[in-house]
Amino acid sequence: MTTQQTLLVLLLVLTLLTGVMSSQEAQVLHVRVGEMVVLECPYLSHKDGGATPLWTNHSTQDVNVINNMSTSAEQMDVLIHGRSLVILRATINHQGNYSCTYGNASRRFCFGLTVYTTQSREHGEKNQNPSTCYTQQSCTLRCPAVNIPPVNITSNGIMWHKEGESSPQNGYFESISEKDSSVYTCTRSYLYRGQTYNMTFTVSLDVKPSSEILSPHKNEAFRVDLGSTVVINCTVFVNSDFDDAFWLSDGSFVETDNSFPVFYNSTRVKNSKEEKLTASLVFTKISEEDLLKNYTCKLESSHQSSSFVTITLTRKAHHFPLSLTLCIVAIVAVIVLTIGGAVILSRGCSRSKGCVRLNRAKRSSSHLSTSWSRV
Ligand SMILES: *[C@@H]1O[C@H](CO)[C@@H](O)[C@H](O)[C@H]1NC(C)=O
Ligand SMILES: *[C@@H]1O[C@H](CO)[C@@H](O)[C@H](O)[C@H]1NC(C)=O
Ligand SMILES: *[C@@H]1O[C@H](CO)[C@@H](O)[C@H](O)[C@H]1NC(C)=O
Ligand SMILES: *[C@@H]1O[C@H](CO)[C@@H](O)[C@H](O)[C@H]1NC(C)=O
Ligand SMILES: *[C@@H]1O[C@H](CO)[C@@H](O)[C@H](O)[C@H]1NC(C)=O
Ligand SMILES: *[C@@H]1O[C@H](CO)[C@@H](O)[C@H](O)[C@H]1NC(C)=O
Ligand SMILES: *[C@@H]1O[C@H](CO)[C@@H](O)[C@H](O)[C@H]1NC(C)=O
Ligand SMILES: *[C@@H]1O[C@H](CO)[C@@H](O)[C@H](O)[C@H]1NC(C)=O
Ligand SMILES: *[C@@H]1O[C@H](CO)[C@@H](O)[C@H](O)[C@H]1NC(C)=O
């Protein structure tokens, strides 16, 4: 096969594939009675630019081409504008299958429209737009976008409601908390010829805990010995695979290569409940220089502002063990007492009967000197 033939075959296969796809991929819309519906015929290529698609109603046995000019009561609320078919107020009768095409030779796009009664719970279930925010962060709810054809339909704002509450909300949280997890509805209002038409969407908001550095603490000072090996763990709770933690030393990145005297390596531990990341800063041999720097563990996240903790190293102060200190104090005290006693006795020795006491003091002083040498 020549290259040209191969290309031709490829093209044929591609055409067949897209042909199959177009008939399978129907866009399905779920709306409530009374709501406005916009079906937009997608562009196939720039050739279709200014073209108006032909809309077909497949809801009846006989397939109908929808046209604008119909004056039947049911179709009063149906407009064709540019690439869009607009049903101003949906009724149960509008439920069904529709398609659009830019001409006989063009691809056909399919739509399915399901209309629910006002009370139907199923509508909310089919229409959930999931959204995630993280505690203590700001959060903006987003109402799904609608492409309104460029006619005299004008937007009249968006209204938010929390499920089970009648008072409207603005869809913005300065600092969100877990109790704000709920189902919200947003209503886009439009004005057309003096009438208001609504499009309502459901957004289910899940508020998850933010990623955070659990340890070390801010400005913590680690006591170290010169020449020793020290590992400082930065433990981070992460809520996303895209969150990462790393170490900086005086503001520049610490190496991850363990042939360097100072490096870090990290591990992730994930279980069903949470994911923890540990970035271990390793000093193979603490030097004087290491004590002069500050070390920062920084948490970077794809969805929240970064946070960090800076620590320092200080040299361990070498004080004596407590028992040794007590011993020395005791010895000094005894020496002072002994000398004091000796002075008194030597004064008394001039008198004959005082000499016995001097001997006793001498004995206790020699006993003390043995305990001193033992220390
Ligand atoms: C349908 O009617 C609207 C206004 O009545 C008009 O602006 C629009 O061009 C018409 N569309 C078609 C395809 O005739
Ligand atoms: C499609 O046909 C059904 C059944 O005749 C009708 O009730 C409905 O209004 C039609 N839809 C549109 C958009 O004209
Ligand atoms: C719409 O099309 C689906 C299959 O694509 C079919 O199951 C359904 O019965 C159709 N609905 C109507 C009202 O024609
Ligand atoms: C499309 O096909 C119909 C019949 O299937 C025909 O009447 C019509 O002229 C064709 N239109 C174009 C643009 O080819
Ligand atoms: C849009 O509004 C203008 C004036 O407000 C009017 O002249 C025009 O006919 C309207 N167009 C349609 C399609 O309703
Ligand atoms: C449109 O939605 C608003 C706000 O939810 C509501 O007050 C109004 O009654 C609705 N209008 C229609 C026509 O459904
Ligand atoms: C530091 O973290 C590593 C990896 O999780 C762990 O094996 C080690 O025991 C930790 N060391 C300290 C001092 O917590
Ligand atoms: C850490 O060191 C850098 C560079 O010496 C300095 O800019 C920064 O302010 C220090 N940070 C802290 C918290 O001491
Ligand atoms: C980090 O490096 C140290 C020193 O090479 C090693 O003992 C430790 O096992 C490493 N930890 C991980 C999680 O790779």
UniProtKB/TrEMBL annotation:
N-terminal signal peptide: 1-22
Gene3D superfamilies linked to this entry: Immunoglobulins
Membrane-spanning parts: 320-345
Keyword Signal: yes
UniProt entry keywords in alphabetical sequence: Disulfide bond, Glycoprotein, Immunoglobulin domain, Membrane, Repeat, Signal, Transmembrane, Transmembrane helix
Protein's UniProt keywords contain Glycoprotein: yes
Pfam families: ig
GO molecular function: interleukin-1 receptor activity
SMART domains on file: IG
Domain Ig-like: 137-204, 209-314
Domain of life: Eukaryota
PROSITE patterns, alphabetized: IG_LIKE
Family note: Belongs to the interleukin-1 receptor family.
UniProt-recorded name of the protein: Ig-like domain-containing protein
Organism: Amphiprion ocellaris (Clown anemonefish)
Lineage: Eukaryota, Metazoa, Chordata, Craniata, Vertebrata
